[in-house]
Specification:
By secondary structure, the protein is an all-beta fold. Helices cover 0% and strands 55% of the residues. The protein has one domain: Jelly Rolls (Sandwich). The chain has no helices and eleven strands.
Length: 114
């Protein structure tokens, strides 16, 4: 059973575990969807791609990756994941740090006006 599920304009996420110094989510990005270009003040993230072939942007560098690949970035690093494909992109996100609230998101660019 998940702790939290949320639908978003780009897809959805589900919280699998939340602890004092880390949080684990599974995230699904629909075809054509992409998350905001963002950074966090209190957490770092590690993404492990399970399905699909996303385009990942980390501090302005764009790469195409696939299942089995992973990406990590430190606190304060700009990042984004997009799904240019025709099937869902699914990845596991492990957050580490001191705070994991959704209000620790500084959006630099957002397709959905948030």
């Amino acid at each position: 059973m998940s702790l939290e599920k949320s639908e978003r304009p780009w897809g959805s996420y589900e919280v699998l575990g939340e602890f004092p110094n880390y949080k684990v989510k599974t995230i699904c990005v629909k075809p054509g969807g992409r998350l905001s270009y963002q950074r966090h003040a209190k957490r770092a993230e590690h993404w492990f791609i399970v399905a699909g072939n996303p385009e990942v942007t980390v501090d302005g560098e764009i790469r195409n990756i696939g299942p089995g690949d992973s990406v990590q970035f430190a606190i304060g690093v700009l990042h984004r994941i997009a799904n240019p494909g025709t099937t869902d992109v699914i990845f596991v996100e492990v957050q580490t740090g001191t705070y994991f609230g959704e209000d620790d998101i500084e959006r630099v660019e957002d397709d959905y006006g948030r």
